[in-house]
Structures are given as C-alpha cells and as structure tokens.
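I hope you will forgive my troubling you with a question about protein structure. I am sending you one protein, given as its amino acid sequence and as whole-number tokens for its backbone shapes. Thank you for your consideration; the sequence and its tokens are set out here:
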Amino acid sequence: MIAGLILKDSVEEESQIAFMDEEVRTFSANENPELVELIEKHKPELIAANVGLEQGKEELTKQEQELQDEGFIFTPNSHREKVVKRLETLKAQIVHQTGLQPDFIRFEPQISAEELAIDGDDALESYGVDSSDINSVEAFDAVVGAVTARFYQENQHRDLGVIVPEAVREKDETESEKELDPRAEE
C-alpha cells in the first residue's frame, strides 16, 4: 500500500490523502488525528507528501536549486514552514500512536503531472488508476502523489529533493534499442 498526501498548513483547510493498492481510495481530513487514524487503518509503506521534512535556512536547498535550474516550478520548503512543521508532527504522531513507520518522500503535484503527462482522469486511467473516487482537485493531486510513490518504489525516478518520476517513454534511444534488439549492444 502506498499513499499520496496533500497536507495543508492549517486545520481550517481539508488535507487530502489517497491510498493505492489494487484500487484507489481518497479521503479528506482537517486534523492530524484523523490522518493518523486513516494511515493506521490502511498501513501504507510509503507516503508521497506535497512538502518535505527537511527545511534549510537558505532560500533554496542545493537540490531545490538544481530542480529550479532544470526549469521546474515549485514552492521551496523554506516558504512552507507551517506545513513542514505539521508534517514533522504528523510523522511523530504516526510512530508514537500506531507504531507504523512509513517512509516519506516529497513530491510536487505539478511536476509529477507534467513529467507523466497526467492532465485529467483519462491520463490517470492510462496508468491503471481508477479515477471514479476523485472528487476534487486536491484529491486528484493526492492520487498523483500515490502514482509518484509507485514510480519511486519501482525505481523510476530522479531524486532532486523532490521526487521526479520518469515515465518509460523518456528512456533514451540507445536504452530502448538495447531492450528491443539484444544485438544493439555490439
């Protein structure tokens, strides 16, 4: 089981979490105890969150600078202090209250959607994801996080401080030729 999490910086706004195994289930929750309860129930091994756990004192971390240099647009962790602290607290609550220790990775919904060409329900379904349970933009983004987590598990990603999934279609021609024709190695 894997999950995607769109965590908001205040409990006045609903955070979204999507759990994915054979099917996708999305939930909204305002407070951390609700999220902890959902995580305890579904027991994900990996959670892709829209914010990272590391917060540098500088404007951009070295990895975020590399990401920006590659042309990606995102909000640096240094500008999301409240959400970073909330994620740190959530992680501690999960461990303390449930004994679970899921891995956390950072993803950016826009970057993952762009890299995987996910621009709607049909595109999500092309990745084997049933989109019938998605009822909001934030839930859609949480599902994109779960898809990113799947690419992370399958080691089809680049880690630039933000996990950037790499679709199979992005392999360079020489790699593709070798897979199609074993003689191409010669």
Q: What stands out?
A: Residues 81-98 form the longest helix (18 residues). Residues 170-186 have pLDDT under 50 and may be disordered. The helical segments are 32-42, 62-69, 81-98, 109-115, 121-125, 137-153, 173-180. The chain has one domain: 2-185.
